[in-house]
Design a protein that fits this description.
The protein has one domain: Arc Repressor Mutant, subunit A (Orthogonal Bundle). Helices cover 54% and strands 0% of the residues. The longest helix is centred in the last third of the chain and has 11 residues. The termini are far apart. The relative contact order is 0.18.
Length: 74
């Protein structure tokens, strides 16, 4: 994870594009503390590895939610 801090940080728009959500969704998640962020001033900045980890946790069941979960036809 140390290497992640050495790479460039993402802004709200880049994080939103990476997660396929709107920038306002990213801001809301950052404000609530659900998505780890840095705030140098008024802007939200994100470590790419933390955004990836958040996305993996948050959207892990996205396909199953669309299909209705388990598909047992009894």
């Amino acid at each position: 994870m140390v290497e992640a801090y050495k790479s460039g940080l993402l802004d709200v728009y880049e994080a939103a594009r990476l997660c396929s959500v709107t920038p306002s969704y990213i801001k809301s998640a950052a404000r609530s503390g659900d998505l780890p962020s840095r705030r140098p001033g008024r802007a939200y900045l994100f470590v790419p590895a933390e955004v990836d980890a958040w996305r993996a946790r948050r959207f892990v069941n996205r396909k199953t939610m669309k299909t209705g979960g388990n598909s047992s036809d009894e």
